[in-house]
Design goal:
Blueprint (H helix, E strand, L loop, with lengths): L3 H11 L19 E2 L10 H15 L5 H5 L4 H14 L6 E3 L3 H16 L6 E5 L4 H14 L2 E5 L9 H7 L4 E7 L11 H10 L3 E5 L11 H4 L3 E4 L14 E4 L43 H17 L1 H23 L5 E2 L11 E5 L3 H10 L2 E2 L1 E3 L3 E5 L7 H16 L1
Parallel strand pairs: 1-11, 3-4, 3-5, 5-6, 6-7
Antiparallel strand pairs: 2-8, 7-8, 9-10, 10-13, 12-13
Helix pairs in contact: 1-13, 2-10, 4-10, 5-6, 7-8, 11-13
């Protein structure tokens, strides 16, 4: 029988990113033995507590209202540019941070369909297994604007393909919205090919990067993407409910107008003048007062990601999920577990999904033991391995507990 403990020790010893795991908060084995939910909520950096304290006593406590003039008003754009550089493949001036993922999805999608309305384009293309918020929000926009939804039936064990998209888009397509990494299966979409297919039909594309940002290399400018949005609290470790980020390609500045007009997005917000006159460029996509305090954890992790490099993160991510699949095949598949994530590197994001009847109860029992996977109906457990905070030994510990739970 293969000695996975020995293999994990060798992999950890050879891992160039191994030392980074020590930078994250460790509550101890009584609280946490293995964390498999980095694709839902990333672990905090130890430095985050110090950064929040320094911000509270310094920038906020000492500088007070002066902070807005000194740096806070520019932080959504400065941090957006940092994310664009280290995680999104986006040149400066196209990305900002602020609002929740849902609000930013609404802003971008509404602006896109409104800009396309004059061309007689009245359809939104989306897939049946996209994240619920994306689907619900687009249903709401369609009802609000009198548009039709064209659904692509997606295999939940995989994800949307360029061939499916090409068959669905046409001269009525205003906007297509897809996730780069499918939240359920971890399917990694062929974003360049899908973007080209939508553009060939005259439509715009909005990518949801929530399960890829900080884990999988993204190259929005090279893809020719129009719009993108993603959350910060998964692989980017921005904390629960952390602010989202959004990308609007430079070519659409001045053409697309976001629908939530607020004072911060006005050309001169402190003029307090009548009428809305949008600011130029990416600033016009802001609405209300930016959540500055909530950006502090994201700032710290973005700096760390810039130091490590997204390609190195991706290399370890694939090594972690490969190792997890090796153990799953040896320990779990013989006990009725089925792998429902792609095994092909080119099509797999940062998590592995496995299914078996009764996994909901199993998840609850594992949580009590300090082993934290993520359950998703129907009968699915997601093994989300965050490359900078997860060790190979941790993978063995967690999967051994899962094996024991289903064979007890």
């Amino acid at each position: 029988m293969q000695d996975f403990d020995q293999e994990a020790a060798a992999l950890d010893a050879a891992d160039p990113l191994a030392a980074y795991a020590d930078l994250f908060v460790d509550p101890g084995p009584d609280q946490l033995r293995a964390y498999f939910d980095g694709n839902s909520l990333g672990r905090p950096l130890r430095a985050t507590a110090d950064r929040l304290h320094a911000f509270t006593t310094g920038e906020w406590g000492a500088r007070l209202i002066r902070g807005w003039d000194e740096q806070w008003l520019e932080l959504p754009h400065v941090l957006g540019d940092t994310l664009g550089r280290v995680a999104l493949g986006a040149a400066a001036g196209q990305t900002f941070v602020g609002d929740s993922t849902t609000v930013l999805l609404y802003k971008l999608a509404r602006a896109a369909v409104d800009a396309q309305a004059g061309a007689g384009r009245d359809e939104i293309v989306l897939d049946t297994d996209n994240f619920p918020t994306d689907r619900y929000l687009l249903e709401g926009i369609a009802a609000e604007r009198g548009l039709a939804l064209r659904w692509i039936e997606t295999d939940p064990a995989q994800g949307v393909t360029p061939e499916q998209v090409s068959a669905a888009v046409g001269d009525r397509t205003a906007l297509a919205v897809f996730s780069h990494v499918a939240y359920r299966s971890g399917w990694l979409a062929d974003a360049p090919a899908i973007t080209t297919a939508v553009h060939d039909a005259g439509g715009l594309v909005l990518w949801d990067l929530s399960h890829s940002g900080g884990s999988v290399p993204v190259d929005l400018d090279a893809w020719g993407a129009d719009l993108a949005v993603g959350c910060s609290y998964k692989y980017l470790c921005g904390g629960p409910g952390g602010p989202a980020y959004a990308y609007v390609a430079q070519r659409h500045h001045g053409r697309l107008q976001q629908p939530v007009w607020g004072w911060i997005g006005r050309r001169d917000p402190f003029a307090m003048a009548p009428g809305y006159d949008p600011a130029e460029g990416i600033r016009s996509w802001l609405s209300g007062t930016p959540p500055i305090l909530a950006m502090v954890p994201l700032e710290g992790f973005a700096a760390l990601l810039g130091e490590v490099g997204i390609d190195a993160v991706r290399t370890k991510s694939l090594a972690l999920t490969d190792f997890a699949l090796e153990i799953i095949d040896a320990w779990l598949v013989p006990n009725g577990v089925r792998v429902t994530s792609p095994r092909d590197h080119a099509r797999r994001g940062g998590h592995v999904t496995i299914t078996r009847a009764g996994f909901k109860d199993v998840t609850a029992s594992l949580w009590e033991q300090g082993v934290i996977p993520d359950y998703r109906d129907p009968d699915g457990i997601r093994i989300g391995l965050s490359p900078l905070s997860t060790t190979f030994a941790e993978v063995v510990t967690g999967l051994a507990a899962l094996r024991d739970a289903i064979t007890a």
